[in-house]
Design a protein that fits this description.
With about 200 residues, the chain is of the alpha+beta class. The protein is built from seven helices and seven strands; from the N terminus they run H-E-H-H-H-H-E-E-E-E-H-E-E-H. Helix 2 runs antiparallel to helix 5. The longest helix has 20 residues. The radius of gyration is 23 Å and the shape is elongated. About 20% of the residues are buried.
Length: about 200
């Protein structure tokens, strides 16, 4: 028995599914497609964790200065463990820095789509992940605005499905997108209950 080696080769130059269009089933149609507004997305990633990061840095700098000023009677074998402790203790700051540095790349990879069968979310900083939500699993759709959202005239759509929640971030015309999503889910699942927290 001979194996057809061409069967195991990728059908195009790119390995795996790269776009929402490539992830569609043969008879699936896109009803809406969009992505976050870049300016609002980047600003939200910078400012959302900024107060926590600044407080964390101030707290750790205070203790590092206190230790440094009293370093005369300090055992030298304790320096390495304390440096490791502070490096780990600053984890919220590293996460904030990572989110700031990768915001533009993550924005490039984020895309949302409503099809006639499901909700598709594409995202990722390095590797691209796809998430599908069946309309039958949607429990509620909520629209929320933050301070930056209101200034940039965007909003976040929170989709609560069985066992998890998904956020479509920083969308332009969020009210009309939310209404469209509610209409689609209502058509697919007549007994669904929605709440709208604007």
């Amino acid at each position: 028995m001979e194996l057809n080696e061409k069967y195991f080769q990728p059908k195009d130059d790119k390995c795996g599914v790269q776009t929402i269009e490539q992830s569609l089933m043969p008879d699936e149609k896109i009803l809406w497609q969009g992505k976050p507004q870049k300016k609002a997305f980047v600003l939200n990633n910078v400012f959302k964790m900024l107060p926590i990061a600044l407080l964390w840095i101030a707290f750790d700098v205070f203790f590092i200065v206190m230790l440094a000023t009293n370093a005369d009677g300090f055992p030298t074998e304790m320096i390495a463990p304390i440096c490791i402790f502070f490096a780990l203790h600053l984890a919220p700051v590293w996460i904030w820095i990572y989110r700031c540095v990768t915001a533009s790349k993550r924005h490039k990879n984020i895309e949302y789509a409503f099809t006639d069968k499901r909700i598709i979310v594409r995202k990722g900083a390095v590797a691209v992940d796809f998430k599908s939500i069946d309309y039958k699993d949607v429990v509620a759709v909520n629209l929320r605005y933050g301070l930056i959202d209101m200034a940039a005239k965007v909003g976040d759509i929170y989709i609560t499905s069985t066992g998890k929640a998904t956020v479509l971030e920083d969308l332009e015309n969020p009210a009309s997108v939310e209404q469209l999503l509610q209409q689609i889910v209502s058509d697919k699942k007549p007994d669904v209950a929605f709440t709208d927290n604007a």
